[in-house]
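G.,

No rush on this.
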Amino acid sequence: MLKAYSIIPDLNKKAKEILEKNNIELILNDAGDIPSSEECITLLENYDILIIGVKTKISKEILKSIKTPKIIATLSIGLDHIDKEVRQSKEIHVINIKDANTISVAEHIFSLILALQKRIYESNALVLNKKGNKKNLHERPEDITGKTLGLIGAGNITKEVIKIAQVFHMPMICYTKNPEKHQDLLNMGIVFKSLEEVLKESDIISVSIPLNDETKHLISKEKIELIKPTATFINTSRVNVVDMYALLEKSDKNPSFCVGLDIDTEEYEALISTYRRNVIVTPHTAGVSKQAIDRMDVELAEKIINEAKERIRKC
């Protein structure tokens, strides 16, 4: 019987049943704390499977102590919290989730777009400050129907965003490093363009790409200067895909430039703590709706079982 340890204390009931019915002994982290790198090494020495979240950092140092095959399963799409050497190791198989929360993230993206374009965030703040008159808005709300949507990234989240955008009859252009791998998007009305063209031509921009060495600060200060001063910019990817200081500097200089961010906020607490009527920040909640969490837990459990069975078959 394989042994699994979940750093996530509240795994979905169905996910737990899937693991236990397939002869995997599951231990939950009832304390709910996030183990250090050293503690993760000890856990992997004692367990065959380690279930983690994005807050758990897995360092390459762990490889020095691992002598038998292990599975690390992360409840996330991104893998930047796991060192590349670990992801490429022959002894450790890393599993992530790719589908379960895509709808939730896509809905969140449009929630940010609509909240900004319809001045909902600003309007609410005016009401709370007893200035609830539409004349106090810095400008009138806008429709998104017919506006050009620029998509950066062509993965599963982008595909769900496209489906929603079609309802608003939005022309869509997309930048991806390898457009030849995403020809199915052509049938969804997408036109592939360079990154510079997408930034220059779009009225609304949505960034959905993983963070790695190539994409860190992909949207640099120079790239941000290409964006229309009246555009709306949404980032639900890792925060460091974008130069945050340059982005918010642009929003401060241009009242009609709107920014919606769903990010881990710790690194930029001082920068984002000031109220801006044209900026909305949510603390990395896009992919963690109630329904998404249940789907993620089940998807991860099923992938663990498939990988465990494959390893047994090879043995």
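When you get to it, here's the other one too:
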Amino acid sequence: MGRSLREKCGVERLQYASGGILEAGVDEAGRGALAGPVVAAAVILPEDFPVVALRDSKAMTVEERLQWREIICAKAIAWSIGFASPEEIDRHNILQASMLAMHRALDKLNPRPQHVLVDGHYFIPWIFVPYTTVVGGDGRYGNIAAASILAKTYRDEWMCKLHERYPQYRWDENKGYPTNSHRQGIRRHGPSPFHRKSFKLL
């Protein structure tokens, strides 16, 4: 059964909400964008991982995120990425699509975690594994911080690849988020197949 953690956590608690078990941290990237997928990551870290040095991906530079991604992918017990497309976002809404991406990431994990630690205040149960939601968890727990780094970097790379096909929206710079340059591109060229039609684009 899920529960919500809102108490202040110290650095010494940055690894697990449920110590001594196989726990996956889960986070997503791209919920507020106007274009592209929402991307989730799930990460199981070993107990000796240097979590104290981890931070929320939004507080890192691009170079720092990529350096940490290499370390996480090399040292994690397991990690995985899940996507939900713009069409799925339009069909289900962004919250449900985010849950879909999280479940897809968790489905790929091997071994299967015994507990799931999720950034935010809402989660749809995944099979029969217990979970905990943590508001601001990407700044408080190492496995969620690691998931935030993977979700952010993989989504950014995806948007840079899409930029090569649709340079008029400057996705290499804005990654699909609602910047002035992005909205100017929509005004001049109309929406692309990768825009979220259910969002207010202009």
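The chain has a mean pLDDT of 90. DSSP finds six helices and six strands in the chain.

Enjoy the weekend,
O.
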